[in-house]
Write a structure and sequence with these properties.
The chain has 115 residues and is mostly beta strands. Helix content is 0%, strand content 39%. The chain has one domain: Rieske [2Fe-2S] iron-sulphur domain (Rieske Iron-sulfur Protein, 3-layer Sandwich).
Length: 115
């Protein structure tokens, strides 16, 4: 694993995602309570930035919405929860350290291939 510093923990808002670039990938970093999650910042349907959509909690899941067509993706699994998206987004390992949030874009947690 190759973790790189993405941002300070305080930079990650509670109800939106933060867009950052790590290596060759754009990543959306979001919070679910105290947990920090990272997905590729690219809708698999429309190829627009997911970080521009809303982050919502519903029961036990936390999702991010594609602002263009309304597809939602689970921030833990990357799976879409409705059309028009049918393919998952890549999810990345995250470590919160004293000096910030670190993400490993060389490994995906869900096996999806980053685009």
């Amino acid at each position: 694993m190759s973790f790189q510093r993405a941002c300070a923990l305080d930079d990650v808002p509670a109800d939106h995602a933060l867009a950052v670039t790590i290596g060759e990938y754009d990543v959306a970093i979001a919070r679910d309570g105290e947990e920090v999650l990272a997905v590729q910042d690219l809708c698999t349907h429309a190829h627009v930035a997911l970080s521009e959509g809303d982050v919502e909690r519903d029961g036990g899941s936390c999702t991010i919405e594609c602002w263009l067509h309304g597809s939602r993706f689970d921030l833990r699994t990357g799976q879409p929860s409705g059309l028009p998206a049918t393919e998952p987004v890549a999810t990345f390992p995250v470590e919160v350290r004293e000096d910030g949030v670190y993400v490993d874009t060389t490994t995906t947690l869900n096996g999806a291939t980053p685009q």
